[in-house]
Amino acid sequence: MSTLSPSPSPSPLTDDALLEAFETATISAKDFHHREHVRVVWKLITTVGPEAARERFVAALIRLANAHGADQLYHETLTRAWVELIAEGAHRFPAAASSFEFLESCPELLDRSILGRHYSPELLASDSARKSWVEPDRLPIPLPISGTAADSHQLVGV
């Protein structure tokens, strides 16, 4: 049995259009699911590198949540953990020319339950994890060995 969460059809938006709609908080909540989160983070990582990607993603995610009246949903540990997992995937597959190609190479990132490998439900449910970064209490999150995804993309001419 698959552990992949049911997901609506992939967004027909290009990576650039999706990123713009996300950063300007013009995408509707019904059109912004886990798959779109992963696509946006990948686009940011491959454009500006993991650290700047995380900063831009967090700022835009909070803006989007506020625009949709869901500001209480932001969770620092979940957000950072996903950015790190996506950065690791981008490092492993630097030749992906689009988020669609990236997700074909890393379909496990569509499985929202993979954070359970790294975090217990109790830790993720804690106020401290919601408000600030908390290290995994299970397996460590794999990090890229060296360099950034943005550097790797530039090396292969993408």
Descriptive key words:
158 residues; mainly alpha; 8 helices; 52% helix
Describe this structure in words.
With 158 residues, the chain is mainly alpha-helical. It has one domain. 52% of the residues lie in helices and 0% in strands. It is built from eight helices and no strands. Helix 2 packs antiparallel against helix 3 (50-67), helix 2 packs across helix 5 (99-105) and helix 2 packs across helix 8 (149-155).
State the low-pLDDT regions, or none: 1-6, 145-158
Q: What is the strand tally?
A: 0
User: Largest sheet, if any?
Assistant: none
Helix-strand pattern: HHHHHHHH
The total of helices stands at 8
Q: How large, in whole angstroms, is the Cα Rg?
A: 15 Å
Distance between the termini: 36 Å
Q: What is the percent of helical residues?
A: 40-55%
Give the overall silhouette: globular
Q: What percentage of amino acids are in beta strands?
A: under 5%
Helix and strand arrangement:
Blueprint: H1 15-23, H2 34-48, H3 50-67, H4 76-92, H5 99-105, H6 121-124, H7 127-131, H8 149-155
Give a nutshell description of this structure.
The chain is mostly helical and 158 residues long. It has one domain (15-155).
